[in-house]
Amino acid sequence: MKKILSALFLCACLLFGTVFAAAEKPEINAKAAMLIERNSGEILFEQNADEKVYPASLTKIMTALLILENCRLTDRITVPEAAFADIDASGSTADLQPGEELSVEQLLYCTMLSSANEACNVAAVHIDGSIEAFVARMNQRAAELGCTGTHFVNAHGLHNEEHYTTARDLSRITLKALENNAFRTIVSTPKYAMDATNLHKARKLTTTNQMIIDSETNRYYDSRVSGVKTGFTTPAGRCLIATAESAPLRLLSIVCGCETTILESGDLEFGSFPETSKLINYGFDAFTYQTVLNTLYPVAEMPVSRSSGANFVSLAPKEEVSVLLPSDYDESKIVYDVKLISENGVTAPVDAGEELGTITVKYGGKALGSTKLVSIARVERATLLTFLKTGISGSQGWLRSVLLILILGACLVGIVWFVYRILTQRKKRSKRRHDRRPPHELGRSDWFEREDRS
Q1: Under DSSP, is residue 134 helix (H, G, I), strand (E, B) or coil?
Q2: 298 CB burial (10 A radius; 0-12, 13-18, 19+)
């Protein structure tokens, strides 16, 4: 069995990709960082993932999630005066005005592209009547998502010592938000033309995420990146959560607390962008999906009794299984755990595609994927004729030979007995016909014998 599975894996390596050279883990200049493969949920890299950080405008991901969970995109909102109560005039804004009317969809673009602080407060008052009540909802939702190191005190992320989170908690919030189609569309939009409102002319909103702006002068642009949100305050440093895709891998990168430096050219270097590039390059270079189970290749055998043919049936995976592995994976650490429904086998007939077990693929002691094992062909049940044909063949030939001899002997005795009965009955019938002949057909001796018997 081990030889079969080993050969199967080697075939898979040849058919489904080359083993890449090992990639070294990057040195990430950030207070905290994480890299997650979204298909599998595997954490590919983490650095201080559970340490407290200030999220700055990454807070708006939770705000956007709650807007989408509690409002329709077409709902209309009027900007209240209370939305500007705790706003720093120097902070990011979409220039919303008290009394201005706009849709929830427009409000979300203001929140996630322009990172407008007042837009978050507008949503808070619209949903819960007050900013305080909305913040309580934020903390409750964070707890529901499994966040254990998060505490919000506002809806926008302006600095407060009691407003904090962790990279791991941010991953939980972001992954939940990414389940929403509208969220994914909004955060992957580089520029948005917002129609004029009752109090403002048409606006052109541009994302703060430089990695999704395709421009000849933008050194941060990466075609693989599709979102999500930047954040910055002086205490928080440069922060960025980004999604990136290069099929079949889908990555979520998180960096918090990166530096801002001045280049020789005099330009500012926002460290969140190059550090994110390091992380996603590492993810794409250091990991690959490998098909380790293919429906075309049998991987196990199941004993079958009372079969008209072979004493076993071959089993193949019901579904193809591809698992995420490091590019420098050690083949010897790949383990195939096969469990049959019965170690003693099954009794024929067996249908093609019948589920007869399971197989689990493990690497380094961790289960990565599993599927059912099914019969690759139908196995008919043996009849007397097929039994006689198989005769002395098979792993139990001696037993079959004895049984065959007994059956043939019984058949011979039966035939002899049958012939004997036929001959006996014929003799009796002949004698009875002889006794019923009329007198003129009998000889003298027969007549006297008949008189004696009368």
Answers
A1: helix
A2: middle
Task: Please give the full DSSP string across 73-106, using - where no structure is assigned.
Answer: TT-EEE--GGGGTT--TTS------TT-EEEHHH
Quote the tokens at residue 103. 């849709």
pLDDT at 99 over 80: yes
Rg (C-alpha) for the chain, rounded Å, is 41
Q: List the domain boundaries for the chain.
A: 2-8+292-375, 31-258, 397-453
Q: Which of 72-76, 183-187, 307-311 has the lowest mean pLDDT?
A: 307-311
Place of tokens 């002319």: 201
**Residue 62's closest CA among 160, 149, 172?**
172
Name residue 37's beta-bridge partners. 42, 251
Report the alpha-carbon distance of residue 378 to residue 359 in Å, rounded: 21
Q: Please indicate whether residue 15 or residue 195 has the higher confidence score (pLDDT).
A: 195
- Residue by residue, DSSP assigns 216-269 as TT-TT--TTEEEEEEEEETTTEEEEEEEEEETTEEEEEEEEEE-EEE-TTS-EE
Q: b/e per residue, 123-133, with b = 16+ CB within 10 A?
A: bbbbbbeebee
Amino acid identity for residue 234 in this structure:
T
Q: CATH topology for 31-258? A: Beta-lactamase (3.40.710)
| Omega prior to 349 cis, within 30 of 0 | yes
**Beta carbons of 294 and 278 less than 8 angstroms apart:** no
pLDDT in tens, 113-136: 999 999 999 999 999 999 999 999
Name which of 170, 189, 158, 187 is nearest 93 in CA terms: 158
Give the CATH fold of the 2-8+292-375 domain: Peptidoglycan synthesis regulatory factor (PBP3), Domain 2 (2.60.410)
pTM: 0.78
Is 31-258 the same fold as 2-8+292-375?
no
Distance CA 434, CA 402 (A): 48
CA angle at residue 288 from 328 to 47, to 5 degrees? 75
Query: Burial of 291 by CB count in 10 Å (0-12 exposed, 13-18 middle, 19+ buried)?
Result: middle
User: Rounded CA gap, 306 and 56, in Å?
Assistant: 71
Q: How far apart are CA 360 and CA 346, in angstroms?
A: 21
Q: Are the CB atoms for 316 and 373 separated by under 8 Å?
A: yes
Query: How far is 404 from 60, CA to CA, in rounded Å?
Result: 82
Note the maximum CA span of the chain. 152
Q: What is the DSSP string of 27-42?
A: ---SSEEEEEETTTTE
Query: pLDDT > 90: what percent of the chain?
Result: 69
